[in-house]
Queue: 2 jobs
Job 1
Amino acid sequence: MILDFDIPTKEIERRKQVIRDIWNYKLDNIDHIPIQLIPIPNPKGYTLKERYTDKKKQLEVQVEKIKVLFDHRAILFLIFPALS
């Protein structure tokens, strides 16, 4: 199964560089390192062992996590504008 999220490569690299700059305190408006806690959705109730040993279950959980992140992108923008 191939999933295509259609995310531009330049945008991915830009976001990676922002994270690198934050950790190196290179951005002018950063005086501390923001920490983002991401809940991992598990609507089907898979155990940790199932999620890490079964590739299909792992993919399902990761796709759900991505969906949650994109659903909450507006909230993340309010908390961490430099990351959006």
Job 2
Amino acid sequence: MLKKVSLITVTLAILLAFSLQMTACSKKTALTDTQFTDLTQQAGYAVTAISADTKRFDTTDVTASMQATGPDGKITIEFYVFSSADTALTASKIVDKNLNALGGVWTLTVHSTNSYWRGTNNGTFYFYSLVGDTIVYVQTDNTNKDAVSKMLKTLGYW
């Protein structure tokens, strides 16, 4: 009987670990600009358009851009929709290059359906996530990291 319980326990543990792994790697879905606006406004963020002169990317490749500013004004999340997933990927490589040039400690996490990059440099927290044809970008004081990660998880970009 002891061997059967052990075998059952081991089997259940393996199944649980597999299901947790599959949940953690679940497919990310790019938000639309309307979904981004709705989710951030529900969390108390104010959403505004990003003007052409302050966009981080070539405006011909961006079909929608907006920023959500947190209730205390300390966090701004930039959201960009590109003309295709390929142009978003190209833009993400530019962000990679610019952020790597800053120095600091960076972590790049790549999944089959998205990638995200985060790091700190001189007390500033940087984050961007590529999902489909969208990029989310954040640059804020390191003390806001937990609040940023919570909002990005809500959006599905962390």
